[in-house]
Specification:
4-stranded antiparallel sheet; mainly beta; about 450 residues; 35 strands
């Protein structure tokens, strides 16, 4: 039986695995096509220009909260001073962004704040907001444009991955120069993407398909059309399965239209599916807790916890007092699961789903709430929605402070801190915006 290292560094490995009695994920034979390792990515010629810092975190940024919305990015600093515990450090209006959603990501290895929107990609100095570079990528297949662009920063901080108009591209983070592009679909510019990195691959979910792309070269490794599950928004999450300390396989979980599927992350083959019965055909937000072998999925007013090794359900909750909604976000900590939706946020025990507290966020309306965390204060939850940012106690749900984000509109918000970045797998924000667009179209 191969060791974990041999699996990581070989080209092709055939691994014979004895499945457990209750497991639905383990197959008799797993053929693994191995993508580049993290070390090879870090040492590649594309990880160049600005050197990475030895210390990942700049302590000056620990008190910063970055928000992206309405074509702008703002840096807030939590000071805990009275009567205003939050102050605006800088605001940058993004040239060419219009009044669109902005997906942001803090690269704490280089003190850069990255943002994507409306076909443009930006890199700002995190402490000052000074623009370092801006680019509008071109695609050999046509336009690269969307108001639902997504952003992924590679684990080593050297590459920025983005997707729009059916194309995934990789840029050098330090200067914005394009490294590769990969055409994955012919969906128009409004199709939303979900991105995650796993073992030298970019896993991509887009309108009924899942793709794996070599993170160094942009070569397509595999694709899965999710036959029988229609065309709709997708979330993806990757996980390595161990049994008794031994490597078993890599799984790509896919959330789509009331289902969760488990694919072999290295080959794309479908292993099993779970029907989220009773929740309808709605988007699914997911997050994995590897240490407890738990997968949390929330959709349309309900959250469920599954064992990642067997896909047996551990518990489910209908989120009392939260109502039903198309848009929601989920955040995990060691003890709690937080869910934001309908202008509210709630906390549940991660172990059994028991609700600890729920609270409405004053002024946020009934829209999607982005839920994140910050290192500026212990047990501080960052919630954002409806043009406001809130500091909320993780322990009891009390709103400690709020900021009205003056001159930044009342649109959906993405959040970045030194320990959190909004991603489009643990929130259904793009799908929520698409749904609002459809509702507005029909009402007009």
């Amino acid at each position: 039986a191969p060791t974990q290292d041999s699996v990581l560094y070989s080209q092709v490995v055939t691994q014979v695995v004895a499945p457990t009695q209750d497991s639905v994920l383990y197959s008799q034979v797993v053929t693994q096509v191995v993508a580049p390792t993290q070390d090879s990515v870090l040492n590649s010629p594309h990880a160049q220009s600005l050197p990475l810092k030895k210390d990942d975190l700049n302590p000056k940024l620990n008190n910063f909260i970055f928000v992206g919305t309405y074509g702008k990015i703002r840096a807030l600093e939590v000071t805990n001073a009275r009567p205003s515990p939050v102050r605006t450090v800088w605001t940058e209006e993004l040239k060419g962004a219009g009044y669109r959603m902005v997906h942001i990501h803090l690269n704490s290895k280089r003190d850069h704040l990255l943002g994507v929107t409306n076909g443009n990609i930006y890199c700002l100095e995190a402490l000052t907001g000074r623009k370092l570079w801006q680019t509008k990528p071109t695609s050999q297949f046509g336009l690269f444009e969307s108001d639902l662009m997504t952003l992924l920063l590679t684990l080593d901080g050297s590459q920025l991955i983005s997707a729009a108009s059916g194309t995934v591209i990789a840029l050098n983070e330090s200067n914005g120069k394009q490294i590769w592009q990969c055409r994955v679909s012919t969906v128009g510019k409004y199709g939303s993407f979900a991105l995650t990195e796993h073992k030298g691959m970019v896993l991509v979910g887009n309108e009924g398909y899942v793709y794996a792309i070599n993170i160094l070269t942009g070569q397509l490794i595999w694709k899965n059309g999710l036959s029988g599950y229609g065309y709709g928004p997708i979330s993806v999450a990757a996980y390595t399965v161990f049994q008794n300390g031994n490597y078993v396989c890599d799984i790509c979980f896919v959330g789509t239209k009331g289902y969760i599927l488990a694919l072999d992350a290295l080959t794309g083959n479908t292993r099993c599916n779970v029907n989220l019965d009773g929740t309808g055909y709605h988007p699914v937000a997911m997050s994995i807790a590897p240490l407890s072998n738990s997968l949390y999925a929330v959709t349309y007013g309900e959250i469920r916890c599954y064992n990642t090794q067997t896909m047996n359900i551990v518990w489910k909750s209908n989120l009392p007092g939260m109502g039903y909604a198309y848009g929601h976000s989920i955040l995990l900590t060691e003890m709690y699961v937080f869910v934001g939706m309908n202008g509210k946020v709630t906390a549940l025990l991660a172990s059994n789903g028991k609700q600890v507290w729920s609270n409405s966020l004053p002024g946020s309306g009934y829209g999607l709430v982005t839920v994140g965390k910050s290192s500026c204060m212990q047990d501080l939850l960052i919630c954002a929605g409806g043009g406001f940012v809130y500091g909320v106690s993780m322990i009891n749900g009390r709103v400690l402070w709020k900021d009205g984000l003056k001159d930044m509109g009342y649109s959906e918000i993405t959040v970045s801190t030194t320990i959190f970045n909004t991603d489009f797998n643990s929130t259904t924000l793009p799908q929520y915006i698409e749904q609002k667009r459809e509702e507005n179209k029909h009402s007009s």
